[in-house]
Design a protein that fits this description.
Main location: membrane
InterPro entries: MFS_dom, MFS_trans_sf, TM_effector
CATH architecture of the largest domain: Up-down Bundle
Number of strands: 2
Organism: Protaetiibacter intestinalis
CATH topology of the largest domain: Growth Hormone, Chain: A
GO molecular function: transmembrane transporter activity
CATH class of the largest domain: Mainly Alpha
CATH superfamily of the largest domain: MFS general substrate transporter like domains
Shape: globular
Oligomer: single chain
Largest sheet: 2 strands, antiparallel
Number of helices: 15
Number of domains: 2
Distance between the termini: 59 Å
Protein name: MFS transporter
């Protein structure tokens, strides 16, 4: 008698909670180890295209906002254009994560970059020929927003396919450094081009950089990619990923900390505009200076992140607390140099938190479900900033920039404190103070140790 075949396993059984160990260095990484990801040919192509794509993307964002303002004279329409670029992430983020786990991520990126190239090219042509209307701009902003929403989870998860798990931390730091370099150069270059030649040329540059990304992705060597299992079509894959993320403390608490910071602490344009216009009265010049100082701090934070030896949940919570404290310091208007120094500190701690949270989330996730989990990270990040822009804008308008900075710091700091207490109670940890050893003045140990 033949026994019946065993029932198929529940989908969640394919993704055990335990993952492979997160890489930890027993010493501070050397520069060679920090840049080890560059040893992968595919990643070199990717980073090269990212350097130009980030700069071009920042140029286009500034140019599109200015173009809408020129065409309508309505700041609300500028807000609508911004919303069309980011709202698709909230609407399509979870589905994009499922798509990332089902389809080859390289080809998802290739398709979305082709769409972005065509959309930006059409808009640049309309602007340069003088045939552009505001509905053209809004439509193309929506198209590129949808393309970016679909690409986001695949782009983030694809990094591990290019470099492998053991070099992923360094790759994430290099990505952040490159992105923030684009944030420093892009707006400045776009401002020069807009003043000299108009908005169309900044948008045309972005079309050229997305075309460069298409070429770079097409030239990658498929046989050098780390194979990742693709998931068949089935029902409940989003719910499955939600259960998976909730069961893993490293992912769950990283997302909670990210939500607090993205809603209240990542709306720097609102806070900096309030400081430039109201608190210090420095106007547009001051606003540009403040943004540059934050970007400089983020660049320094990316460099520091690449030199870290370990990656733990308490690091994510600690950097979140540090970000909150530094932001609270920026609320004090008693000494202007202190405010400027705090802005650099905000950039450093924000980048250290973001890199630790993203790396821990990715490294704590099995490859077969990584696209969906990363999509949650992106949705929390983008959705939090969208909601926080309204909340923090209202606080700054009603109560002034000082209180807005204070709230932006208090909420993350308190959230980090609460998470720290919960983790300490659950793992029976305590803080030990040793006055005899200044190098280990404060440390976290087990209650039995």
């Amino acid at each position: 008698m033949v026994s019946p075949p065993p029932p198929p396993p529940h989908p969640a059984a394919e993704y055990p909670v335990v993952t492979e160990p997160i890489p930890v260095f027993d010493r501070r990484p050397t520069l060679r180890e920090s840049f080890a990801a560059l040893g992968a040919y595919n990643y070199r192509l990717y980073l090269f295209s990212l350097a130009f794509g980030s700069t071009g993307g920042w140029m286009a964002r500034v140019a599109i906002d200015w173009l809408v303002l020129e065409l309508t004279g309505d700041v609300a329409m500028v807000g609508l254009a911004v919303a069309l670029q980011f709202a698709p992430t909230l609407l399509l983020g979870a589905w994009a994560g499922v798509l990332s786990d089902r389809l080859p991520r390289r080809f998802v990126m290739l398709g979305t970059q082709i769409v972005a190239t065509l959309a930006n090219g059409v808009l640049a042509a309309l602007v340069l020929t003088g045939h552009v209307h505001v509905w053209h701009v809004l439509l193309i902003a929506g198209v590129t927003g949808v393309a970016g929403a679909i690409e986001g989870p695949s782009r983030s998860a694809f990094v591990s396919e290019m470099v492998g798990t053991h070099r992923l931390r360094g790759a994430i730091s290099l990505n952040a450094t490159t992105f923030h370099l684009g944030g420093l150069l892009g707006p400045a270059l776009s401002g020069i081009l807009i003043a000299a030649l108009g908005s169309g040329w900044s948008i045309a540059v972005n079309a050229a950089t997305t075309l460069l990304a298409v070429v770079a992705i097409s030239c990658m060597r498929s046989h050098e990619l780390v194979p990742t299992p693709k998931q068949p079509r089935s029902r409940g894959q989003v719910r499955e990923a939600v259960r998976y993320a909730w069961r893993k403390p490293a992912i769950r608490w990283s997302l909670v900390m990210l939500a607090a910071i993205s809603v209240f602490g990542m709306n720097l344009p609102v806070l900096l505009a309030a400081a430039a216009d109201g608190t210090f009265g420095t106007g547009p010049t001051g606003y540009g200076l403040y943004n540059s100082l934050c970007a400089l701090g983020a660049f320094l934070g990316a460099i520091l992140s690449s030199q870290r030896r370990s990656l733990r949940l308490r690091d994510v919570v600690g950097f979140g607390a540090a970000y909150g404290l530094v932001t609270m310091l920026a609320a004090w208007d008693g000494w202007y140099p202190m405010f400027l120094s705090a802005l650099v500190g905000i950039g450093v701690t924000r980048l250290l938190f973001a890199m630790s949270a993203e790396a821990l989330t990715q490294l704590s996730t099995n490859p077969g479900i990584r696209g969906r989990v990363v999509s949650f990270y992106i949705m929390v990040l983008m959705g939090g900033q969208a909601a926080g822009g309204v909340i923090m804008g209202w606080i700054a308008q009603q109560f002034g920039g000082q209180l807005a900075f204070l709230v932006a710091g208090v909420v993350p700091a308190v959230t980090a404190l609460v998470i720290g207490v919960v983790l300490a109670r659950r793992h029976e940890l305590r803080i030990r103070v040793d006055l005899r050893r200044p190098s280990r003045l404060v440390s976290v140990v087990t209650r039995t140790g």
